Amino acid sequence: xxxxxxxxxxxxxxxxxxxxxxxxxxxxxxxxxxxxxxxxxxxxxxxxxxxxxxxxxxxxxxxxxxxxxxxxxxxxxxxxxxxxxxxxxxxxxxxxxxxxxxxxxxxxxxxxxxxxxxxxxxxxxxxxxxxxxxxxxxxxxxxxxxxxxxxxxxxxxxxxxxxxxxxxxxxxxxxxxxxxxxxxxxxxxxxxxxxxxxxxxxxxxxxxxxxxxxxxxxxxxxxxxxxxxxxxxxxxxxxxxxxxxxxxxxxxxxxxxxxxxxxxxxxxxxxxxxxxxxxxxxxxxxxxxxxxxxxxxxxxxxxxxxxxxxxxxxxxxxxxxxxxxxxxxxxxxxxxxxxxxxxxxxxxx
Length: 349
Ligand SMILES: *[C@@H]1O[C@H](CO)[C@@H](O)[C@H](O)[C@H]1NC(C)=O
Ligand SMILES: *[C@@H]1O[C@H](CO)[C@@H](O)[C@H](O)[C@H]1NC(C)=O
Ligand SMILES: *[C@@H]1O[C@H](CO)[C@@H](O)[C@H](O)[C@H]1NC(C)=O
Ligand SMILES: CC(=O)N[C@H]1CO[C@H](CO)[C@@H](O)[C@@H]1O
Fold this sequence. Notes:
Bound molecules: 2-acetamido-2-deoxy-beta-D-glucopyranose
Oligomer: single chain
């Protein structure tokens, strides 16, 4: 279980800063000078973790990543007025699930697996009651959610109503996905497969997928405009499309709480490895072995949450993206700050 290297770096920052202060400063000034556009250069905008030295925390050995991000930022965001990148860390929804008994929490970014994760936390929240009431945890879906009324909250401040049994300490998980993979999976799930799954309620959604059918170019244009409107306060985020395609860094009050989270990268094809790591952590924090074993048994090997993987669609759309400069640019404009803050590589243009 690794937290984002960025986060690790952040935690170790004070020490590193002391050691690397002079080198670091030289590199920073060097970079700024190299871009010699300090007047129009937006840097990462104000009020975000960049102020903590995030982007400019250049390792002497390796500035490739930082330089490539700065290059893209300069290209798509030459000034605040002409910025095509979606805003960083805009505060969208923040649904949190609390497990005081073991001092564990998670903030949920909507997507297929988040439902499963919510059920897992509900199970460990009260294993005995859960076992009695829920026969099949994979059927404890979003619309059922046994625990909803007991341990779900929607703001960071509401956490004060809960006491962690681990001396007031909380381990705050956040499950994140590679932005392009997440986009493809969301598109296939919400715009294509949903049409043939009655429980996905495609037909009762308002203007589902902007009427784009299977046209990803059409969809991404509309989705980008919709998110821009939201971040400018002109639209509400509560709509299936916006909830699933808004940047991950727009969720969970990351603007204030980025450094409080323990990030875990999730890839559906590696669910078994992922669960092993997660459940080993749970055991470390005191969750009984018979409970984690039961979770493993009920979740691994069940196909529900890789709904899209049995089809050809993900491959088809991945190819389409790889061959389209336009789609790649749109993905960068939408998810630049996800790539940056959550430590993923930008698509190459
Ligand atoms: C430098 O960054 C590149 C791209 O992220 C990475 O592949 C490489 O391993 C890094 N090198 C070192 C020495 O960290
Ligand atoms: C997909 O949508 C775009 C933008 O709306 C449009 O220009 C293009 O012709 C559409 N492609 C197909 C195959 O319909
Ligand atoms: C786990 O074991 C404990 C103690 O042996 C027992 O009380 C509990 O019911 C078990 N839980 C499950 C889910 O099997
Ligand atoms: C666990 C869960 O919510 N799985 C859902 C994932 O998405 C597919 C397709 O929309 C559903 O059929 C699953 O129930």
